[in-house]
């Protein structure tokens, strides 16, 4: 692992945890073969992700990175576990939650892309954070 790769992936995670004009950052970091597993267990392709995020019944107010709990890079593959705090509305239900996410990255040439992601069910910000 080079410090450049670690810095690059850390920057990608920060971007994925951010919101720009109500749209979560990081979609551009997904490889076209990426699968993102929602808390329900249902996977989304990048196309399905775009469709979900562009629906009228999805509104993201804020999102920020709380911590990166683990980041390991092994050759051209990497995985990270991190925590975010987001506020959003989904189908009329307001959410203010802390979620644990796992992302698997693969390096394509000089570019790191997410090839798999998974999000936990959110917990209240008043609940203790998970310990890693």
Question: What is the fold's blueprint, element by element?
Answer:
Blueprint: H1 3-16, E1 19-20, E2 23-24, E3 30-37, E4 43-44, H2 46-53, E5 58-74, E6 77-90, E7 93-108, E8 111-119
Parallel strand pairs: 3-8
Antiparallel strand pairs: 1-2, 3-4, 5-6, 6-7, 7-8
* CATH level 3 topology: Nuclear Transport Factor 2, Chain: A
Distance N to C terminus:
22 Å
Count of discrete alpha- or pi-helical segments spanning 4 or more residues: 2
CATH architecture heading: Roll
The total domain count is 1
Helix content: 10-25%
Give the total of beta strands: 8
Rg over CA atoms, rounded to whole Å, is: 14 Å
Name the helix and strand elements from N-terminus to C-terminus, one letter apiece.
Answer: HEEEEHEEEE
Weakly predicted, low-confidence segments:
none
Mean pLDDT over all positions: 91
Percent strand:
over 45%
Give the class-level CATH name. Alpha Beta
Main β sheet profile: 6 strands, mixed
So what's the overall shape?
Answer: globular
Structural class label: alpha+beta
> Taking strands numbered 1, 2, ... along the chain, how are they ordered across the largest sheet?
4-3-8-7-6-5
């Amino acid at each position: 692992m080079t410090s450049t790769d670690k810095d690059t992936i850390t920057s990608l995670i920060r971007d994925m945890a951010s919101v720009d004009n109500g749209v979560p950052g990081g979609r551009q970091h997904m490889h076209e073969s990426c699968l993102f597993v929602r808390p329900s267990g249902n996977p989304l392709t990048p196309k399905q992700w775009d469709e979900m995020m562009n629906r009228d019944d999805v509104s993201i107010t804020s999102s920020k990175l709380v911590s990166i709990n683990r980041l390991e890079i092994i050759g051209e593959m990497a995985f990270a576990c991190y925590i975010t705090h987001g506020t959003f509305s989904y189908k009329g239900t307001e959410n203010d939650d802390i979620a644990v996410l796992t992302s698997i990255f693969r390096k394509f040439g000089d570019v790191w892309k997410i090839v798999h992601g998974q999000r936990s069910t959110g917990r209240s910000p008043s609940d203790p954070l998970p310990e890693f």
